[in-house]
Every structure is written in C-alpha cells, then in structure tokens.
C-alpha cells in the first residue's frame, strides 16, 4: 500500500519508513510485519495462514527476496509484498491479513480511515 500525503495528526506512527530495511521487513509492533521496497511499504499481521504462527522465529528476522517476496521461516511459504498472497509453499493462494497503512513524512502510520487533506 502506498502512502499518501494525508494529515496524520493524533495517529501514532508504527515506525519510520527508514527503519524498515529496503527490500526487507520489520516487526513494527507485536503482531505487525512491515515490508518495504524503496518508498513503498505494506503491513500485514505477522501470522502465517498455514499454521497461524508468526512468519519469523527470531525477532525482526525476515527472509525476503528481491524486495518482492517474504518467506515464512517454518515451512517456506512465499508471500508477495504487494498483496500478501502466498505464491509458493504449503498454503498456496492463502493471504496474509493486511493492515492498512499510509506514509506521511517518511513515517508509517496505521490508516484509520480519517479525513483526507490531499
Ligand atoms: S507456518 Fe508458515 S509455511 Fe507453515
């Protein structure tokens, strides 16, 4: 999900865009995985749809490939950054649960659906 230039007053940021490794992932909150490619970022619940457990087993350690795919550390399911769909592995076609975000001033905010000020 791409960020937009909306006003985020009163919304706590998940993290700074630059905290997320370019082409990789960060555990921004206890159950939220943020993925980044350049100036784009996506957030998902860090719960693999295969066994309903986190994709990683070490804190902030996510196996990402080419800024396009992130792999579950348990049984190697591969999920696209862009839509969270599993494109290879034991839960083919399943999807990570998206967390709506927006990017404002290089901060990643949970998108609360508030008013836009574009
Ligand atoms: S728990 Fe993620 S692929 Fe099995």
TrEMBL record:
Task: Report the residue ranges that make up the Rieske domain in this protein.
Answer: 12-110
Protein name as it appears in the record: 4-nitrocatechol monooxygenase
The terms under GO molecular function for this entry are: 2 iron, 2 sulfur cluster binding; metal ion binding; monooxygenase activity
> Which PANTHER family does the record match to this protein?
PTHR40261, RIESKE DOMAIN-CONTAINING PROTEIN
Has keyword Hydrolase?
no
InterPro entries associated with the record: Rieske_2Fe-2S, Rieske_2Fe-2S_sf
- Organism field: Caballeronia glathei
Keywords attached to this Swiss-Prot or TrEMBL record, sorted alphabetically, are: 2Fe-2S, Iron, Iron-sulfur, Metal-binding, Monooxygenase, Oxidoreductase
